[in-house]
Every structure is written in C-alpha cells, then in structure tokens.
Write a structure and sequence with these properties.
heterodimer, A: 125 residues, two-stranded antiparallel ribbon, elongated, B: 172 residues, alpha/beta, two-stranded antiparallel sheet, 7 helices, 13% strand, globular
Chain lengths: 125, 172
C-alpha cells in the first residue's frame, strides 16, 4: 500500500487571500473540513473520563442511594406520575420521555421574569 | 465552579438514580452522567426551572421521593438574570433551537436564588449537535457577546460564555 502526499498547489499567502474572499457559509464549511483551524482551545484534544474511572463513582453513589432507600431496592410497580409506574416510565423511548418532561414542566423560561443580580456579583469568568 | 445541567442531562441523571434504585445495569452514557453527578457534588450544580418543576411533581410520590430528594438536595435552580432573553434571542440567530438558546443564555446571564452569581462555568449536556454548533461558532459568539458587553453596565459587562461539554469531557 502506498501513501500519497499532496503537493501544496498554491502559497500560504494565496490561501489566505482566498479565505478573505470567502462568505460566512464557505468559512463555516472550511472549518468543518479542517477543524484545527478553529481556536486553539477548541482544537486541543480533550481528555475524557474512561468508563472504568466513571464506574468508581457509580459504586460510591449507589451506597448513598441505598442508604436513603433503607437498603430496600425499588420494585417499580407503584405509580410515579400521570398514571405511569416507575417500570413503565423507565421503559419509555427517549422521545416519549422527553415529550412528557416538556408536558410536565409547565414553564416557559422565556416568559420568566429576569432577576437583577447583586452589584458585587461573582462572574463565572 | 458552577455547572448547569440541561434538561436532557438532568433527566438522564434521574433515570440512572431510578435504575440503580432497582439495581438495573446502566448504559455507558448513563454511567457517565451518574459519574458526573457524583463527582461535582462539592461544586455548585444547577438545573433549569423546567426540570425542577418535573422533579417536584415526581417527588409527590412518597415511595419515590427519597430518590428525587437525593438529587434535589444537591442542586439549585438557575434563575434568568437581566439580558438573558436578549442573549437567547441572539443565539437563535446562530441556528440554536429555542430550548438550546435558552440554556446557553442561562450559562451567560443566569443567576442563583440570592442573585450572587452571573453565569455558569460549564453547561453539561448530552446534546451533541448543540455542542458541535457551539464549538464551530464559539469565536463568533465571543465577538458578539463582547460587542454586547461594551454597552452594558457593571456587573453585566463581566458576563462570559460558558464551556459546553459532555459529562465525560468534564474532568478535574
């Protein structure tokens, strides 16, 4: 199997000139094709948790969960909400569960009143 | 550090709590959300008002309320601060859904019950299309927010964009 190497057809300056003339949608397409052109923080490979690491947390939280349940696991046969038992709720497809949450939420955040924040607020920056 | 769980992530954590209450096996995605919840407990963890409403309804069932209260006891509800709606409307112009724009705007202009913070450090989400769109447009959004900030008085001129990450990407 041979490896082909592309010879750069034009100079960096010519590429830069071509980019300057691109529309926003063309730039977006270019960024999709060459993700490393994005900001350094976005292009930097991110370390992710492994399943093995995550499993340790599960074991710890399980213990807390069993404590609040007096060490009696739920059967799931009792009603949870809107006539659904826990078992029926857990068997719902994701789309249906999502639809029910929207229905049960009964709030439109865009209609909520905005609250002033304190002058000495802590910014998340 | 402050973390905002979008509705899908909060729903996933509650689902995993219910499943583990029955000793059911979790999917890898559920393990990561469960793990995130456990790991960030010492930090400030927020949910959106819609999630809080659903959980309050679920908590009315005496049998299941200990599980729901285990979750609710560790979270706060984010409240929209000034300019939240304006920023959410601007985000809609960058191809975010209405709900995505709202949660992302809370990440910048959300506050807590005592109105003592502005914005969140991290928005945790399982919504990969939202993350992709955010990543692709982050530089544009930063510029847009910077322009908006210049016309705002303190403390709103300190508003910043959150990081938008999947649970497994949130590492110490």
């Amino acid at each position: 199997m041979s490896t082909s190497t592309l010879t750069r057809p034009i100079s960096i300056e010519q590429i830069a000139e071509a980019i300057k003339q691109m529309s926003q949608s063309e730039i977006q397409r270019l960024l999709d094709l060459v993700p490393k052109l994005r900001s350094p923080s976005a292009a930097k490979p991110r370390r992710t948790r492994t399943l093995k690491e995550a499993q340790a947390s599960v074991d710890a939280l399980d213990a807390e969960l069993m404590t609040v349940l007096n060490h009696k696991p739920l059967t799931g046969n009792e009603p949870l909400l809107a006539g659904l038992t826990l078992n029926q709720y857990l068997a719902l497809p994701d789309e249906e569960e999502s639809r029910l949450w929207d229905e049960w939420a009964q709030v439109d955040i865009m209609e909520m009143e905005e609250q002033e924040v304190s002058a000495n607020v802590l910014s998340a920056r | 550090m402050s973390y905002l769980l979008d509705k899908v992530t909060a729903r996933s954590i509650v689902r995993t709590l219910f499943k583990r209450s029955q000793k059911q096996t979790l999917t890898p995605e559920e393990i990561f959300t469960y793990d995130l919840f456990r790991r960030i407990l010492p930090e400030r963890l927020f949910i959106v008002p819609a999630s809080a409403n659903v959980l309050q309804l679920m908590a009315q069932s005496p049998l299941y309320s200990p599980v729901i209260h285990l979750f609710l006891s560790h979270v706060e509800v984010v409240i929209p601060g000034p300019y939240f709606k304006r920023w959410a409307r601007r985000l809609r112009g960058y191809a975010f859904t209405r709900e995505d724009a709202a949660v992302l705007a809370l990440g910048t202009f959300g506050t807590d019950e005592t109105n003592s913070i502005l914005g969140m450090n991290i928005v945790a989400t399982l919504d990969q299309p939202m993350i992709n769109n955010w990543t692709a447009r982050e530089a544009e959004l930063e510029k847009r927010l910077d322009t908006m900030r210049r016309n705002l008085a303190a403390p709103y001129n300190q508003a910043s964009l959150p990081q938008v990450l999947r649970p497994e990407e949130i590492v110490p």
